[in-house]
Structures are given as C-alpha cells and as structure tokens.
Write a structure and sequence with these properties.
This is Chlorophyll synthesis pathway protein BchC. Its cofactor is Zn(2+). Keywords: Metal-binding, Oxidoreductase, Zinc. The protein has helices at 40-47, 96-99, 140-143, 146-159, 175-186, 200-208, 222-229, 245-248, 251-254, 276-281, 294-305, 324-333; strands at 2-6, 14-18, 28-37, 57-58, 62-70, 82-85, 88-90, 110-111, 123-127, 131-133, 167-171, 190-195, 213-216, 235-240, 255-263, 285-288, 315-320, 338-342. By secondary structure, it is α/β, with parallel strands linked by helices. Strands 3, 5, 6, 9, 10, 17 and 18 form a seven-stranded mixed beta sheet that branches. A six-stranded parallel beta sheet has the order 13-12-11-14-15-16, sandwiched between helices. The chain has a three-stranded antiparallel beta sheet with strand order 2-1-4, with no helix packed on it. β1 (2-6) and β2 form a beta hairpin. α4 packs across α5 (175-186) and α4 packs across α11.
C-alpha cells in the first residue's frame, strides 16, 4: 500500500513509499482511509519538532474510512462499515487513568500516527475499542476531523463544563479554535474569538459559524472590547488554543476574578511568561486539557449527528495523498483552515 512515511528525525525526512498492508489480529480493525486531516502535531512531526515520534513512522491520526478487514475476535463492527476512530491504539490497561477510561493520560499509551503507523496511508490499523461506526447523518468527510472537534468537547464540556450565557474567549482561530467555538455555541455560551491580522478569513468564518464577537488583537484593544462585552466584569473562561508564547501574556486581562484559563495549545518551548501574580491575587483557575477520551467521542458524534457542528465548513482543501507536499505547504502557510488528504476514493 502507499504510505507517507517519516523516515527519520529531522526537518521533512518524509517519503511516499510502498509498504506492507497491515493484517488485523485479535481485536484489531483495518480501515481503508478515505479522508485524513493534517493536524498541527503532524506539522511539528514534519518539522522534526515532535520528539515523541518513533521513526520510521506513518504520520496522521484524524481519519475516516471504510472497514476493510477485522481481527478474529472483533464483534462490534463489520466489514464495509463507515467509521472514524479514536487515536489510541494501545495502553497499559492497568493504571488509574486506564481504569477510568482516561486513555489520554496513560503514560504507556501508544497513539496512532505517533508511536504506531497512522492514517497518511491507503490503510490504517486501529483497535475495536477505538472504532466508531458513523450515523448516516455524518458524512465521511465531516467525520475525518472528529478528533479536533472532540478536543474542543473535552476541554469545554468535560473539563470546564461551560454553561448557557457564560462568556468564553477563544485565543487562536485555527481548526481547534473554530471547532471549539461551535461546541460552545451548542450549549448557548457567549463566544469571543481572538486572532491576529493574518487570521482575517478565519475570524470571518468564526463569525459566520456563530461567534458573538471576533477580535483582531493587532488592530483592536482586545482587553477593552472584552471588558465592554462583559460589562467590565471579564470573561468566565479563556481557552488558549494557539500555542503561541505572546498570546499567554494577555490571558488574565481577558478574565474575571476567579476566572478560568483552559490551556489547549501546545507550546514550542516549555518556558512562557505566565502572570503568576494574577493567579494569586485574583484567585485564577488553570485547567489543562489534553486531547480527548472515549466519553468525549460519544458526545462529539452526537453533536455532529444533531447538526450542531458544521465540520465540513472548516475543510477548505482536499488533496490526493500523492500531493502531500503541496498540502503540507498550504497548512504551514496558513492559507487554509483545514487541509485533508484523500488516500482512496469513496
């Protein structure tokens, strides 16, 4: 089968190769990949900035497709089913996190596209527990980016538990931020999306998808606008989705006293200028939100089935697998919202 392989550590070091098609064992499921999204972590992998990758490795972890084959002990999915999959391939099964089905926190977790071969290929192997059969109302294209939507669901509905009429500021109008905005609107929160000038089209999309206010922080006074929007109180929540060091400086200016920062974005370096005095003096809360867990996927797919999330609206380019270089170039240029590869025709 054709697969986009990260040959070794370093910048790029990727080739489209013919590799052996996997054979599912026991409770494994082989999926014929129709669509697979390019994530920010894939770009970190392309640049050689993600040290958790075990090369040689096929990248990619956001995908949808058709079940090609199943292992002998699989009972919950059949060949030919339209599916998407969680990114967990294996865990220790014994730690406290595993017992609570919080696989995202298992220290021995193996992820699709990071420790085992991923979805930038004609076929990808996953496990039965991670598979979700799609409702007929969810297209394969929409389902290909279930994973980034689930990240927003985990952060806002499971970790923060945002409620109707609460004010939430999203910093970073990338795919994660735009998915999150729709999730927050599904519970009737009041949403403000903050970006910079080069995010103009993404901010426009955020507004079209229901955000109550969008702000270009380079040309507008974001703090003043948020204060006015909240009658000088400040936002209840701020979701940091950019992973950009300069963004962290103003976070607490957006929040009310005892407000909550939910950190979703992953930073390129560990040292960032977080206002520690504000945390103490204003009794601020900080929550970390790492990817998602099985319960998140059920919530996410239900929102998608109800039509509360328009994921296809965020997919602005689709490339065949053979044009992976152009696809990655477009992602890094920031010209598109979400770029998807198509290894196989539906």
């Amino acid at each position: 089968m054709k697969a986009l392989v990260k040959i070794e550590p370093g910048y790029n070091k990727m080739e489209l190769l013919e590799i052996e098609k996997p054979v599912p064992k026991d409770r494994e499921v082989l999926v014929k990949v129709i669509y697979t999204g390019i994530c920010g972590t894939d770009i970190h992998g392309f640049k050689g900035e993600y040290d958790r990758l075990k090369t040689p490795l096929v990248l990619g972890h956001e995908f949808s497709g058709v079940v090609e084959a199943i292992g002998k002990n699989v009972t919950k999915v059949q060949k030919g089913a339209f599916v998407t999959s969680e990114t967990t391939f294996d865990t220790c099964g014994e730690c406290e996190s595993c017992q609570n089905k919080e696989y995202n926190l298992c220290l021995n977790r193996k992820g699709i596209g990071s420790q085992v071969n991923g979805s930038f290929a004609e076929y990808v192997l996953t496990r039965e527990e991670s598979i979700h059969v799609l409702d007929e109302k969810i297209s394969l294209l929409a389902a290909s980016i279930t994973e980034p939507i689930a990240c927003g669901v985990h952060a806002s509905l499971e970790k923060a538990q945002v409620k109707k009429d609460e004010v939430a500021v999203i910093v970073g109008p990338g795919p994660i931020g735009l998915c999150l905005s729709q999730v927050l609107k599904s519970v009737e929160a009041r949403v403000i999306v903050v970006g910079i000038t080069q995010d103009a089209e993404r901010l426009k999309t955020a507004k079209e998808l229901g955000a109550d206010r969008v702000i270009d922080s380079l040309t507008e006074d974001a703090t003043a606008i948020i204060k006015e929007f909240t009658n000088d109180k400040g936002a209840d929540y701020c979701f940091e989705c950019s992973g950009a060091a300069p963004a962290i400086k103003a976070i607490f200016d957006y929040l009310k006293q005892k407000g909550t920062l939910v950190q979703m974005g992953v930073f390129g370096k560990n040292l960032n200028e977080l206002d520690m005095n504000s945390i103490v003096q204003r009794e601020m809360n900080i929550i970390g939100s790492r990817s998602q867990k099985p319960s998140t996927w059920h919530l996410t797919l239900d929102l998608m089935k109800q039509g509360k999330i328009d994921s296809e609206r965020l997919i602005t380019k689709i490339y065949p697998l053979e044009q992976w270089e152009e696809a990655i170039k477009q992602v890094m240029a920031g010209n598109e919202i979400k770029v998807v590869l198509q290894p196989n025709k539906q």
